[in-house]
Structures are given as C-alpha cells and as structure tokens.
Amino acid sequence: MITVEVVLAWPDRVDARRLTLPEGATVADAMDAADIDGSAQCPAVAVHGLVAKPDQMLREGDRVELLRPLLADPKDNRRRRARAGN
C-alpha cells in the first residue's frame, strides 16, 4: 500500500484528500478515489508540480495536483499591467 495526497486549489479554499492505495495505483485511480467536487472540470493534472498523464503510476508520498483551467491568459495580464504602469 502507498499513501498519496490529491489536492484541488480554489481561490478561497483547498480541497485535499489523503489516500491509501494499492501498489501500482495510477493518477487516474487516485483521482477516482479522492472524489473531489469540481475535479471533472480540471483539464490537467500534475504530480509534485510536473504535468502527469492519467496512467502514470504513483509512488509513496506523491502529491497529485488537479489543475483548474486558467481564467485569464498570464501573458495578457502582464501586458495589461505593463500598460497600466504597475
């Protein structure tokens, strides 16, 4: 058995689940077991900050991060701040 954490961060809160899964469990297995509201709308997932595929096997202590869609393009935000003088 391995212990992993699945996390989905919102602007005002963090939903996290610590799970015990069998050896050989994948990112998809962890996402299913965590059953976090809103996870179906997450277009990507990462393990310790590195983009991962659903079939990636997990190891003891891994942190699975559910990545929400961007609400604004970071490049556009930087341009807007530069024009405003901030």
User: Strands across the major sheet, in which order?
Assistant: 2-1-5-3-4
Residues in helices, as a percent range: 10-25%
The number of domains = 1
The CATH architecture designation is Roll
Q: Based on DSSP secondary structure assignment, what is the total number of beta strands? A: 5
Rg: 16 Å
Amino-to-carboxy terminus distance: 50 Å
Please state the average pLDDT score.
Answer: 88
CATH domain class = Alpha Beta
Q: Which regions have little confidence, pLDDT < 50, spanning 5+ residues?
A: none
Structure write-up:
The protein is of the alpha+beta class. It has a single domain (2-84), classed as Ubiquitin-like (UB roll). 22% of the residues lie in helices and 33% in strands. The protein contains 2 helices and 5 strands; from the N terminus they run E-E-H-E-E-E-H. The protein has helices spanning 27-34, 74-84, and strands at residues 2-9, 14-21, 44-47, 50-52, 63-67. Strands 2-1-5-3-4 form a 5-stranded mixed sheet, with helices on one face. A hairpin with a 2-residue loop joins strand 3 and strand 4 (50-52). The N and C termini lie far apart (50 Å). The relative contact order is 0.24.
Task: Write the topology of this structure.
Layout: E1 2-9, E2 14-21, H1 27-34, E3 44-47, E4 50-52, E5 63-67, H2 74-84
Parallel strand pairs: 1-5
Antiparallel strand pairs: 1-2, 3-4, 3-5
Structure at a glance:
Helix content is 22%, strand content 33%. It is an alpha+beta fold and 86 residues long. It has a single domain (2-84), classed as Beta-grasp domain (Ubiquitin-like (UB roll), Roll).
